[in-house]
Design brief:
- It comes from Roseibium sediminicola.
- Residues 21-238 form the ABC transporter domain.
- One of its GO terms (molecular function) is ATP binding.
- Keywords: ATP-binding, Cytochrome c-type biogenesis, Membrane, Nucleotide-binding, Translocase, Transport.
- The longest helix has 16 residues, at 185-200.
- Helix content is 24%, strand content 29%.
- It has a six-stranded mixed beta sheet, sandwiched between helices.
- It has a domain at 46-68 and 85-216: P-loop containing nucleotide triphosphate hydrolases (Rossmann fold), CATH 3.40.50.
- It is an alpha/beta fold and 238 residues long.
- Bound molecules: adenosine-5'-triphosphate.
- Adenosine-5'-triphosphate is lined by residues 30-31, 35, 53, 55-61, 208.
């Protein structure tokens, strides 16, 4: 059996004040081409920002930028109410197209690894608590796969295992790229429940999606190309 790290990642502990994600004049280039520029928004605790727009417009690029995986060409982003010197990425879980699941480890070992590797964020304004790995698997309906190599899981089960990662380490910002992909109707409803619970705990969600998500407290950021320079216009609907 593969040895897993046993040391717990340190938690970020912070004073009690309202949480807010602030993005100011974000400008992103990819492959030498401007994807968008001067995109600004704020997101309060308990709110989801649903990012919509045509294929290739920049939804995934925005999420990857917020996650710290793509460098900013301009602008700034931070979490207000957190530690001033902590980048947004350290408050966030990135749930992207890839599942970040190691096939040779069991489902449980994958979760135990992630829980030890990613630091929790403990802030009074965010009530999210760490769910034990076995419980997280059961919550996602894949408790019976705990001792199976993750490579044996179906596409939907693997997606659920990736989702369980968000439960074992509480972080207030969930960045979710097409979170319902590969999920059946029941799993999709369960995912919505988890997302709404996260918002109810004072968390925030930024999600790119082509499907309607019945989230409790939602704003919409619709990205579209503008002429003559290819920029994106934001439309924030309360
Ligand atoms: N690694 C990369 N190198 C160069 N260009 C890239 C890279 N990743 C994305 N792009 C380009 O950036 C633009 C935005 O892509 P992005 O994946 O963010 O769009 P999207 O809105 O998420 O699209 P979709 O709805 O199809 O998932 C596209 O023109 C794409 O080709």
């Amino acid at each position: 059996m593969t040895e897993l790290p046993t040391n717990k990642a340190p938690s970020i502990i912070r004073r009690s004040s309202p949480l807010k994600l602030i993005a100011e004049n974000l400008t992103i280039d990819r492959g030498g081409r401007r994807v968008f520029q001067d995109l600004s928004f704020t997101l309060e605790s308990g709110t989801a920002l649903v990012v919509t727009g045509a294929n290739g417009i920049g939804k995934s690029s925005l999420l990857r930028t917020l996650a710290g995986l793509v460098s900013l060409a301009g602008g700034a982003m931070h979490v207000e109410g957190g530690e001033d010197d902590r980048p947004l990425a350290e408050y966030a879980h990135y749930f992207g197209h890839q599942n970040a699941v190691k096939p040779a480890l069991t489902a449980l070992e994958n979760l135990v690894f992630w829980q030890s590797f990613i630091a929790s964020v403990r802030i009074d304004a965010f009530a999210g608590a760490a769910v034990p790995p076995e419980e997280a698997l059961a919550t996602l309906g894949i408790g019976h796969t705990a001792q199976l190599p993750a490579g044996y899981l179906s596409a939907g089960q693997t997606r659920r295992l990736a989702l369980a990662r968000l439960l074992v380490t509480p972080r207030p910002v969930w960045l979710m790229d097409e979170p319902t992909s590969a999920l059946d109707t029941a799993s999709e409803a369960q995912l919505l429940g988890l997302m709404n619970d996260h918002l109810g705990s004072g968390g925030m969600i930024v999600t790119a999606t082509h499907t309607e998500l019945a989230l409790s407290n939602t704003r919409v950021l619709h990205l579209r190309a503008a002429e003559p320079v290819r920029t994106l216009t934001e439309e924030l609907d309360a």
